[in-house]
Amino acid sequence: MKAIVIGAGIVGLATARALASRGYSVTVIERSRQAAGASVRNFGMIWPVGQPAGPLYATAMRSRAIWKEICTEAGIWHQENGSLHLAYHDDEQAVLEEFFAANHADRPSLALLPKHQVRDKSSVAVLEGLQAALWSSDELIVDPREALLKLPAFLAEKYGITFQFGVAATRVRSGEVHTADGHVHEANTIVICSGQDFETLYPAVLAQSGITRCKLQMMRTQAQPANIGASLCAGLTLTHYKSFATLPSRAALVNRFEKESPEYLRHGIHVLVSQNQAGEITLGDTHEYGLHHDPFDRTDLNQLVLRYLETFCLLPNSEIQESWHGLYAKMPGDHAWFLHHPEPGVTILNGLGGAGMTLSFGMAETCLSPDGTAS
Ligand SMILES: Cc1cc2nc3c(=O)[nH]c(=O)nc-3n(C[C@H](O)[C@H](O)[C@H](O)COP(=O)(O)OP(=O)(O)OC[C@H]3O[C@@H](n4cnc5c(N)ncnc54)[C@H](O)[C@@H]3O)c2cc1C
Fold first, then answer.
1. pLDDT (tens digit, 9 = 90+) per residue, 101-128?
2. Which of 100, 193, 340, 373 is most buried per CB count within 10 Å?
3. How much of the chain, in percent, has pLDDT values that exceed 70?
4. Which domains are assigned to the chain?
5. Which atom from ligand 1 is nearest to the alpha carbon of 167?
6. Strand ranges across the sheet with 45-46
């Protein structure tokens, strides 16, 4: 049985792996010479703590286990450094305590740390004014630029997956993929993982799904002199992730941000801090939603990110050496992803939003049945 996967971002790679492990002979067709989309532009955070209890947390943990296995086997750098959510206000502390109370029975990885233990986990967390800290040992980081480069070679070697880079799929029908170089490729199963390209394949289906784009601005510092420990975030992050969305205490926190610093909520800013193998810190981000985005980045939004960063993290070297933006595909409402069959034997898998690195490997395992059909 032959399968073609379109797109060599993390969703395409995870899908290709899942199909190959179900016995398919898999070819991945990717427009770029190497992956250059959302999957290389992110923090590299595998972030289960951001997923709500139940199937999504389970999917994130399944992904985490697969990432760990692959990174170990393929020699991809990764660090199981966990995460800290830092609280400097009563309303932030209330959210952390409520989250811990609701989740610690199912997530033994969680702990509320007293202030004096925070330094053991992070050399850069601001301790002055710190009221509470939620530690989670689930989080893992990879360097997405390295991981997305090495994964195809590993998947080719381990599963015999074939990659065609620099080839754009222009048309898909049941059983066949037409590419811009004039070839027609035949396959029993075709899975389209085209990320934020909604205009090339099945544009009408994607338009009807309500899927949209999100633009995120990011920065990277120069290398720090030492390992900073856990990945960090603070109060704004509690307004962002689904795992906190249903907590009653969250409303007071959002109200305060609306009054004190509405510009952060208006631009979807929350600040995450992750360190890569070179010691550099990846920082961000902003969230702007819509089908069209300005190709230029706003310095004022990056300044807001840096200003908020200082409230909870003091880096020895905060000089910014790179900035960029990424675009990801996002479904409306509570949909964690978009899975649709526009024709027999053709599946569209997309729209994992800000959690594609966290969910993709687990999602592909969950969505593909033993015979490789997606549901
Ligand atoms: C700035 C930023 C930070 C993020 N941080 C995190 C994080 O820390 N943790 C986390 O879990 N998630 C994070 N995310 C989300 C995550 O990166 C995305 O959910 C994920 O990368 C989406 O993967 P994808 O494969 O769908 O898209 P992409 O990585 O964009 O890949 C799609 C690929 O399809 C190819 N393609 C499209 N159309 C065609 C065609 N017709 N023919 C051939 N090839 C085609 C494209 O060239 C592209 O390479 C972040 C995203 C961004 C932008």
1. 999 999 999 999 999 999 999 999 999 9
2. 193
3. 100
4. 2-41+145-209+334-367 (3.50.50.60), 83-137+212-330 (3.30.9.10)
5. 43
6. 45-46, 140-142, 78-79
Distance 37 CA to ligand 1 centre (A): 5
Mean pLDDT across the stretch 202-209? Answer: 97
The H or E element that residue 170 is part of is: strand 169-173
pTM of the model: 0.97
**For a pocket test of ligand 1, which of 83, 197, 322 has the largest count of ligand atoms closer than 8 A to its C-beta?**
197
Sign of the CA dihedral 180, 324, 282, 55? negative
Pocket test for ligand 1, best of 11, 63, 167 (most atoms within 8 A of CB): 11
User: What integer is the mean pLDDT of 33-53?
Assistant: 97
End-to-end Cα, the chain, rounded Å: 18
Q: Which of 281, 310, 286 is nearest to 299 (CA)?
A: 286
Q: What mean pLDDT, rounded, does the chain reach?
A: 97
**Contact indicator for 370, 196 with CB cutoff of 8 Å:** no
